[in-house]
Write a structure and sequence with these properties.
By secondary structure, the chain is an all-alpha fold. It has one domain (about 15-90, about 105-265). It is about 60% helix and about 0% strand. The chain has eleven helices and no strands.
Amino acid sequence: MTTEAPLLGFVSDDVAAILGPIATYWIASGFFATLDTIKSPVTEKYRIHPEEELTKNRVGRFTVFRGVILQQCAQALLAFGLLWWQGPEAHKTSTTFFSSYILPCFQFMFAMFILDTWQYFFHRLFHQNKWLYRNIHAWHHSLYVPYAFGALYNNPVEGFLFDTIGAGVAYGLSGMGVKGSIIFWCFSTLKTVDDHCGYNFPWDPLQQMFGNNAAYHDLHHQLHGLKCNFSQPYFTFWDRILGTYEDPVAASIKFNERRAASKTQ
């Protein structure tokens, strides 16, 4: 069996699978952070929350930045350790990876389904169990107003269980090779950052392709949305099937009506 050239050419596929999602995270986050800084009227009109609402967040940006960096370093060290333990022959791939797009596309879609299933049920559990929420998941919800580089601000236990193991299970069950995992993990990372970006752009392809988008997930970060919209990062079918789906536009209208009514009493 001959082996393919690395997908990115300048680095091995194993290293790209580990470092690619981290690079994707900070490149995408840097783009949205630039928009936050520039405050162009073109983009500001699509901001989900007024900037002054950022004061409702219970942690500062440096704490979030440090938390994400530490989590990514721990995940990368674990992955490199596993790679070293398995040896250089473990992830060699044949030359057939791109010979047909049918199987890789099926594997990609199946991995999306597995990851969504994993994330939905664990995410919902961490909300329904008061101890798990208070001691672990509340870290992430300290960001009442999400922003891009806070997408992976989690308790380390949650980061390991939701993201590291969840992505590994999706990769393993789908049967995709290392090259497929590079694309899948980078795309999933980009999607997660976009879901927390704080903007509801009509021209953002990810927000138009998926009903599970920034507006959908932002509702979940609000106090009146904590018990709905658990699905992440791709689809909404588990929320719809199990009765935890809330349309973000309708929910926002109802919330504003209740708030206005309470002020008049």
